[in-house]
Specification:
This protein has about 270 residues and is mostly helical. It folds into 2 domains: about 120 residues; about 150 residues, no CATH class. About 75% of the residues lie in helices and about 0% in strands. It contains 8 helices and no strands.
Length: about 270
């Protein structure tokens, strides 16, 4: 009963927060920041409590549970980002996605057991998920950056989404900061994998490892190009979204094929 209540509270809070962002974008009516923070923080905390209770305090990395955990981390990062920079538009993408993935995990996906693993592997997984979450938020910012650029290029100053976004230069700066932080954690993930995973190129890990390395190269190229040549705009966004697409396949592509299509586990 408590588990269901936590899921309902989290889904409701995420939905309300997203609706307020949409209302502000369309009508210019902003939710007071303390109230907005309270609602979104409630959603994240209830989501975290649900994951702890539903998965018995363990780290459950089965497909839908892992998606729900990643969504909670992404939502948490979006909330913290908004504490320092007002980027309300993040919520219109992040919070409905978190609500959907939580609902699937809570009411549609079959029950699963937490994975049994040593503390070193847990550390490796947690660092990986945090890096994935940071890069995911940066990818959402990249999409919002495209919206801003198109509106400004077309001189569409009445574009509703401009109301819930900071100036373009601040959006871009924040995006690169998150990419840099995510790249550091992705690097730590690969290094910890070498140290802690006995056979990094085992049958079930070879695709994940190879794709993660490809994503690392893409993000590294993006950051190097930004530092050396000042890359920005659509070129930077294309590279970022390409790297994020590869990383998505690395994290969840193998799980989807093995668990849902082949009915096997990693």
């Amino acid at each position: 009963m408590l588990i269901s209540i936590l899921a309902v509270v989290a889904v409701a809070a995420y939905t309300i927060a997203a609706l307020f962002v949409a209302t502000r974008a369309l009508h210019g009516k902003a939710l007071p920041r303390p109230a907005g923070f309270a609602i979104t923080a409630t959603g994240v905390l209830a989501h975290a409590a649900y994951l702890f209770a539903a998965h018995r305090g363990g780290l459950d990395l089965h497909f839908f549970a892992a998606l729900s955990l990643a969504a909670m981390l992404i939502a948490a990062i979006a909330v913290f980002v908004n504490l320092s920079r007002s980027v309300d538009a993040l919520g219109i993408i992040v919070f409905p996605l978190a609500a959907l993935l939580l609902a699937i995990d809570a009411w549609i996906a079959p029950p699963t057991q937490p994975n049994v693993m040593d503390w070193q592997i847990k550390l490796h997984v947690i660092v990986a998920l945090l890096g994935y979450a940071l890069l995911s938020v940066s990818a959402v910012l990249a999409l919002l950056l495209l919206v801003q650029e198109r509106a400004l290029r077309n001189r569409d100053v009445a574009n509703h989404w401009l109301r819930v976004l900071p100036p373009l230069t601040l959006t871009e700066s924040l995006m690169f900061r998150l990419v840099a932080a995510g790249f550091v954690l992705l690097t730590a993930t690969l290094l910890s994998g070498v140290l802690f995973v006995e056979n990094l190129f085992a049958q079930h890990l070879v695709h994940k490892t190879s794709l993660s390395i490809v994503a690392w190269v893409v993000f590294g190229t993006l950051l190097a190009g930004r530092w050396r040549y000042g890359w920005r705009g659509r070129r930077a966004v294309r590279l970022l979204l390409s790297g994020m697409g590869v990383l998505l396949l690395a994290f969840f592509g193998s799980k989807f094929v093995l668990e849902l299509l082949l009915a096997r586990t990693l």
